[in-house]
Amino acid sequence: MPRKLKKLKKTARRVERGDPRVVLEAFGEPDDHLRLSTLIADAVTKVVDSAELRGVARRLTDERGPRSWRDRRADFQGVVSLMPSDTIVLRDPDAFAEAYVSDRVWDWDDAMLWRERSEFFDDLLGPIARGAIGLERTAPDPHLSKRLASARVSEKSPRVDLQDPYASSVGPDARGALGWLLDRGYLSEPAIDELIDEGVGPVLDRHFILVAYDHLSPVARAAVYRIAVLRGEQVLNGTIGPFPVRSKSAAHAVTSAQVEELLSCGFLQRMPAEGSVRIPRVVRDVVLARAEAEDPDAVEKDHQWVFKQLQDQAAQVRQMIECHHHAVHGLLIDEAVDTARFYATDLRELAIRLSRKNRWREAASVYRKIVEDFDPEDAYAWEYRGYNLVRDNPGKHSDEILNAYKRAFEIDSTNPLYHGRLLGFRARGGENIRAEFESSFGRYAWWGVDRFASEVLKGLKRGGRDHMAKQLIHAHPSLLKHPEVRHIMEDGWAHRSRD
């Protein structure tokens, strides 16, 4: 038998028997790097004998410790550099793949978050290479495969069925749905082969989940909407997580028939741990996108209900983190702040969600809480405190807005969005910003110029200074080659809007 096949079979048998290593899972959410670094440290304090290593790890699980990735990274690097072999298994590491997608460079809103996520995974490559952290790739992404090439890590999941003809083309987390579609005749083998020929990876996996979702019964969809607010493995024993499993429909419950349908179509997976199930990331992403589009208030209420079930039981680090997650996604402002025990980055997610609901003053207050109580050097929080105050009432909050924009740009002076909004707000108030505007082009590459210039032009037009905006374009006609600048200068642009 070939050596590679023997190794795969040996790994599969070990997983079936129950691997003693601590299994942690990436969910593809903004808190992944801080959540996982905290949980890795927590696991180290429990399973490693080294007093030196436990001491470093405890700094990351101390509720009085630093709350930002910037201040926690050195301790995390210390933990993973000393961690012995076979300590952790990271399930679904490909959730970090999008941090390495090249077009993220131009996503200035999330520049710091994507940088932090990529730094976290870069810090894992050493312990992955020497076997301290094993990987269970349940949704392989080519972008991450490139990062793992030097780490000599197999792209196979240990639970791969070696007889499955689609094993090399469809991620393990999507193969349950694919098998269900084939069994019921919803997809034919020629149709699947044609889709595979067009390219493999997350897009293909997501396609199979979407097709399976469209064929679920309405009651199964209702159940998976509810269960999808939970993250990670859940005990299935009369309950699934905190949700009761009943024979008939009931409030805050799912039925056993719904659970069986979700298991049969791969939307729920049975895990090696006895009586345990999980919803794969690709399924959660599809389901929550649909649920939040159709009834976002219901999703919020489910998070609020789960928070209330967990808040008095959250004694372990993992439970405390999940409790905080549900408070954030349930828009429970005070509770989210109170449960930010290990890191505060996820409070940004709370503020973003408040802002999307036009609750701008509350969003600005959350950002203020971040910079005053948790991390005064959080440029993103400063920027979006100013942004939300603009949307609430720019005249009433002008001094606070200007201060927030100034602080954001002082902390991150390479960010063209932050620079453009600062200069644009000053221009909106009547300040002559032409010289500074013209001297700033050379600081940014193509997309940076577009973002910087468009924000300045928005400020001028919102301040009723259309003539100045046209003068700048007349002096620098090449700016019209930039799509966002061109859009702002169109006659129909609603220059007094808050967008």
Describe the structure.
With 499 residues, the chain is mainly α. The chain folds into four domains: 3-160, no CATH class; 164-294, no CATH class; 357-412, no CATH class; 414-499, no CATH class. The protein contains 24 helices and nine strands. It has helices at 3-17, 32-47, 51-61, 69-82, 111-129, 142-148, 172-183, 189-197, 202-215, 218-227, 256-264, 281-294, 296-310, 317-329, 333-338, 346-356, 360-374, 379-392, 398-411, 416-428, 434-439, 446-462, 466-475, 483-489; strands spanning 22-25, 88-91, 133-136, 234-235, 239-240, 243-246, 254-255, 269-270, 276-278. The strands form three sheets. It has a three-stranded parallel beta sheet. A three-stranded antiparallel beta sheet has the order 4-9-8, with no helix packed on it. Strand 8 and strand 9 (276-278) form a beta hairpin. Helix 2 (32-47) runs parallel beside helix 5 (111-129), helix 9 crosses helix 12 (281-294) and helix 10 (218-227) crosses helix 11 (256-264). The longest helix is centred in the first third of the chain and has 19 residues, at 111-129. It is globular. 44% of the residues are buried. Mean pLDDT is 86; it is low at 1-18.
